[in-house]
Amino acid sequence: MKKEFLTQEEEVSLEGFAESFEKRVLQLPQITEKDAEKGMKFQYKLGEFDEPIVFLVDNPFEAQLMANIIQEILEVDAKLDAKLYDKLYDKLHAKLHNKLHNKLRDKLHGKLDAKLHDKLHAKLRDKLRDKLYDKLHDKLHDKKLEYFYASYWNVFYSYWLCRFEYCHKIGVLDDEETKELREYLNNLNNFGSYNLVFEGIAIVVQHPIFFNRDIEGNLHSTETFAIQWKGDFGLNFVKGVYFEEDLFSVFFKKKATPKEIMEMRNQDQKAVVIEKYGMDYVIGEMKPKLIDTFDGMSKVTGKKIHYELLRVKTPAGERNLFIAEDHSKHTRHPILVPIVSDIDNKEIIRWSQAGAWTFEMEEQEYLECIKEGES
Amino acid sequence: MRQGDILIRKIDKIPESAKKSENKTVALGEATGHHHTFNGQVQIFREPKISMCKTGQYAEIENAVLEHQEHRHLEIKKQVVEIRNQRELSLLSEVQKVMD
Hints:
The structure holds 2 protein chains of 2 kinds.
Chain A: H1 8-25, H2 33-46, E1 53-57, H3 60-78, H4 84-111, H5 114-128, H6 131-142, H7 154-157, H8 159-169, H9 179-187, E2 194-198, E3 201-205, E4 210-211, E5 227-229, E6 233-238, E7 241-243, H10 245-253, H11 258-262, H12 267-277, H13 279-283, E8 289-297, E9 304-314, E10 317-326, E11 331-337, H14 351-358, H15 363-371
Parallel strand pairs in A: 1-3
Antiparallel strand pairs in A: 2-3, 4-5, 5-6, 6-7, 8-9, 9-10, 10-11
Chain B: E1 2-3, E2 6-10, E3 19-21, E4 25-28, E5 35-46, E6 54-67, E7 74-85, E8 87-89, E9 95-97
Antiparallel strand pairs in B: 1-2, 2-7, 3-5, 4-5, 5-6, 6-7, 8-9
């Protein structure tokens, strides 16, 4: 008989479970070399590999340096395939995934009704699949930290583990079935903030010493690094948007000019900066004159949408400024648009004509496209 | 449908010049590394880019979701679509691609 619903008590415990799981992993313990060794030996054993030599480093930069050296040594001395790292990483994770995830998933499918399974998974995932993981992953890649891989803060990578732990907690999976899983979870902090794996060698990156988030869970600080490791290595994020050091300095440590803000190419960064300075400050000097506006509702998000079309003065002459609201992020994006469209040679006097121009299409066609929904 | 700087435009059929592609990522954020990627039953077709907005990317969708790290996922049912990028003018009136 498959379990089809949660008791009232279980429903209540589910609410707090993801939160306690997150807290447990985000406590930023500074691990010792012994801890790191224990964690990595466990992972390698689970993947059926020989025990590695384990190095614990203070920050991602040091990890990258060490990874480069190891790669060089392996290539020069052993003439091994340059893709050894990728191969080992794929193999290790495929095995971890097969061993832990697939085995438990199959067991769970036998014991839990499919709808209830999906509900549990979705609820825990939504609470745990935080914005930290994706953002850090991307940013460290941008900084050419090529060996960084997807286990940053295991809690975000491992939200799928959380549902098995919850099922163990409510008695759907028994002790024997979850033995390896529980050992894995007990070792989570020992894996460091993330780790790099090679054949016979593993590099574990220490947990950060500090991070700050806004109320939505985004990495956020307008004064210092939003996340920092030992060795003065940190990254700047404002409301979850990454800012390179020079940009952070211009827009948050000093007062930027409206021109500097309007010239920003990255829409996400621009929107955060506009929120800080205010739209009036940014476009005030352009003498904006409202010529059209629209209020509606997004079919996708169910949230209000608002568009404005303004006539403004730019260094190149009079132009249209189309202000679109991003209702996923509650941010406003000013997009400069010509006075006359190159699609139909008509003067742009409606928000929908401006929107159409930005996607190189006719107004009616654009309206058809967006009536389906926006996100 | 629109997802940030990407617009999904319904079309009748995939142009014959477009070839099947396994890569389901239809736009990669130059600045953030974020990407708009299809997941599900979908076949992507590609041909050389036509213009700044006309990416030369098409999708034959059975039942798919367009995902992005920052935006709400878009569920898309059976249809054939073209993927377009967004453009803007710079302060000096140069036409440039919207970057996120």
